[in-house]
């Protein structure tokens, strides 16, 4: 089964991110938006796991000890490849606690998975499907502002992802409480 580890978001944060998505609906670009209920902060993508790997992953994640912390939405941005925008996202702040938690998760998983040295904490809200007018779409992107909503992080989750024509379906397999 396809799995990842992530931080699930409260409703008010998802509502805020949905408002940003609505500001991006326009005739200049076609965006595949992440469904509001699926927006999360990925800490580590695991890929396909068999039952034994899943069991070992669950056991390893039980050993992660980290304090609860607060995050705020910070700024809107995008990852691009030459003149093509690939991913639209919102950053979180402060990044230090997320990085420390992600490091502890990596350490706990040890030799089970390859270490992700390119981790970048962000909330993906959409992916570019096609841009009809790049300059006009860039003007829209530059105008997006983010409300500085904050939220408490008191757990992280092991999540199963099933891909379908209607988009991914996520199921929380286990929640791991922070102290």
Number of strands: 9
Annotated CATH topology: Cyclic Phosphodiesterase, Chain: A
Order of helices and strands: EHEEHEEHEHEEE
Structural class computed from helices and strand pairing: alpha+beta
The CATH class label is Alpha Beta
Q: What profile does the largest beta sheet have?
A: 5 strands, antiparallel
- Taken together, the total number of domains comes to 1
Nearest-integer average pLDDT: 95
> Which strand order does the major sheet show?
2-6-5-4-7
**Shape, please?**
globular
- Beta-strand content estimate: 35-45%
C-alpha-based Rg, rounded: 17 Å
In DSSP terms (H or I, runs of 4 or more residues), the helix count works out at: 4
**pLDDT below 50 for ≥5 consecutive residues: which ranges?**
none
Helix proportion: 25-40%
- Named at the architecture level, the CATH assignment is Alpha-Beta Complex
> Considering the protein shown, what is the CATH homologous superfamily?
Cyclic phosphodiesterase
**CA-to-CA gap between the ends?**
29 Å
What do these coordinates show?
The protein is an alpha+beta fold and 179 residues long. It has a single domain (2-177), classed as Cyclic Phosphodiesterase, Chain: A, CATH 3.90.1140. Helices cover 27% and strands 42% of the residues. It has four helices and nine strands. The chain has helices at residues 11-23, 51-61, 95-109, 134-143; strands spanning 2-8, 29-33, 40-48, 69-81, 84-93, 122-131, 150-153, 155-162, 169-177. Strands 2-6-5-4-7 form a five-stranded antiparallel sheet, sandwiched between helices. It has a four-stranded antiparallel sheet with strand order 3-1-8-9, with helices on one face. It starts with a strand and ends with a strand.
